[in-house]
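Think of the structure tokens as a kind of shorthand, similar to the way a musician reads notation: each symbol stands for something richer, in this case the local conformation of the backbone. In the example below we present two proteins back to back. Begin with the first one, reading the sequence and then the tokens, and try to describe in your own words what changes along the chain.
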Amino acid sequence: MNTKSIVVFSGYNNRALIAFFRTLASLDVPFHIVASDSKDPVFKTTYKKHVIATRKSKLLDKDEIIKILKHFRADSRSELLVAPSTESLNRFFLENRDFFEKNGVFVPLVEKSLYEKISDKKPFSELCKSFGIPIPAEYADLKSAPVPFVAKPKTYADAGGNHLSPILVHSEKQKKNFMENEDSNSYYYQEFVSGGSYYLLFYITKNRKVHKFSQENLIQQPGGKSIVAAVGCNLHHSKAAAKFQEMLTGLGFHGFIMIEVRGSIDELRMIEANPRFWGPSQFFVDSSTNLFLPFLKEYGIISDLEMNGRSNVSEFNRYFWEGGIYDRESMDFHNYSRVEFDLELDAWKSCDIYRRNDILES
């Protein structure tokens, strides 16, 4: 069945990668890892045996990467399929797509222009608005934005190539600091949406078949960073989810995508989209909807029988990453409280994504 060899660049988005490795290992699918450096967390797992090379530079250097991949191709005699694991990696391979494809290295992503339209926050926000999907209220400029608000980068990087991230501004002091230290022209400004936090997760095939899952996020790192605790929900069966599906399939999008929405369940607003692997991927791997399976099936890695035979519910009914709680008091709670968390702590810990047999060191 195998027509391509899977290559994974590790060292970043590690929670998603460990979930992907677990899926591949459970299917006995061969895979090959290019480590970021000697301190890559993959070396603290049983998957270190799959490392075929360790990069000398953490920068995505085209010459170094093609040298590694050409050497491996000479041994494997197969085309290589690069896992779409991180934003920077995806953009690097899209920018150099023709070069890599001529060398037998393929990335399972849509064309560059569509990818950027979805991944860049401002274009995707405008796209959703034009499609009748609610977005947070926007302010004309920084001065008119009342706190709290969110400063969102218009594009992935500024004119100098520096990666930009959203900045939550909760006070006048923070607003003043933002005005003094950031280039306001690189950002646009939206209201801060409180209430529930949800992820809609899709894998859409090239023939428009939609595989989906959703989660309600309960605990999050401050500043809108990583999710550390979540439970399943049925949002992927809602009219809101159907609207996103219609838009994405109409655009010809295929592949992985996570869409964050926030607010009350009957008045959700689109926050952002990430067309790649996502940190809490272990949750859908543990569910009855492992979204890695249709991806592997679509690219000829597994058969229909293997895909359909692996959709079993496991013992884990929550997502939890205890290591992400680096400062307990600063964590953001959504429709959940610290008191509830303390009462259920043992149940949460039993689902910790790193308390499993494939982790050699924590």
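Once you have a description of the first chain, move to the second and do the same.
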Amino acid sequence: MIGPTLIMGASTKPFRFSYKLTERLSANGYKIYCIGKNPGSVFGVDIMTGMPDLEQIHTISLYLNPKNQEEYYDYFLKLAPERVIFNPGTYNPILKKLLNDNGIRTIEECSLVLLSMNEYETR
């Protein structure tokens, strides 16, 4: 199993895709961290705010629109994940270039679809 996933844009609202991803990843035994606009807890995972110190993040799954990503650019580089997944509606060519220029792989896919196709770890 791959290392931890950080869900950026996490929510306690069941209709949000970030909520559904938290549910699916936790049900499948993945180690996950969640950062959202508001604190809370989802499926036993605390939703943190701000930019907490985290280590050994394998994947960042983005659920923030491009405008809301800007304040996290340096944070993403500091975390140095192996990959960042741009979920639908989050694609940002500026962030993609910044990440790629720093050796971080990017994917423009839906994390939930990757999970359902058993490709979350291989893509």
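Compare your description with these statements about the second chain. The beta strands are 5-8, 32-35, 40-42, 45-48, 59-62, 83-86, 105-108.
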